[in-house]
Amino acid sequence: MRSTGTIRSWDFEEGQGIIDSSDIPGGVVVSGWSIRCEAITVDSPDGMGMHGLEAGEPVDFYWRRDDDGDGYEVTDVWPCRCDGPDSPSTGAFRSALWMSATREDGVAIMREVDPNDLPPVPPRPPLRRSTGVVVVWRPEEGWGVVEAPETPGGAWTHFSEIRGDGYRSLVRDQRVEFDWEPAHQDGYSFRASDVAVVDQA
């Protein structure tokens, strides 16, 4: 069922609040996981952001009787000024993309974003390809280092970047071809991908 109400209070540390509505006498507890469209954010003592809704905020929300039939459960809540969902959330899991913003009155907020509204990711320029040798391989950890003149000090790589199926491995002094890019990975200044064995050591 869809109703309108007002946030009576919000406990940011607990991640929940209370909605007052004429449709639910006495109010109903609402979880931060139910917020849609927009939420305000505050800093927690550990520096992480916590989100919620402001006391006094008019909200629209979807609710239903809980499984016991003696209480209520809010599935979705959003500020009245926002366009909310056309139907309530179903299931135990819902994912969403949220982006930080600043409201017109200067309040820090998070806004729910439809991934289809994001601009396309620009194409990534092709990586450079080199031929080099394996200088380190740690089979028990599934990673190693390949080196070419273009990657002084070596390029870190993972077994999943080696061409082939299943768990792949390299051997010290093997000649390989690989794509590489500047990166800070486990103390190395380069990272290698699409590693192909040229000949066995």
Automatic annotation (TrEMBL):
InterPro entries: CSP_DNA-bd, NA-bd_OB-fold
SUPFAM superfamilies with a match to the protein in the record: Nucleic acid-binding proteins
Domain of life, source organism: Bacteria
Domain (CSD): residue spans on this chain: 129-197
Pfam families assigned to the protein according to its UniProt record, in alphabetical order: CSD
Designated name of the protein: Cold shock protein, CspA family
Species this protein is from: Williamsia serinedens
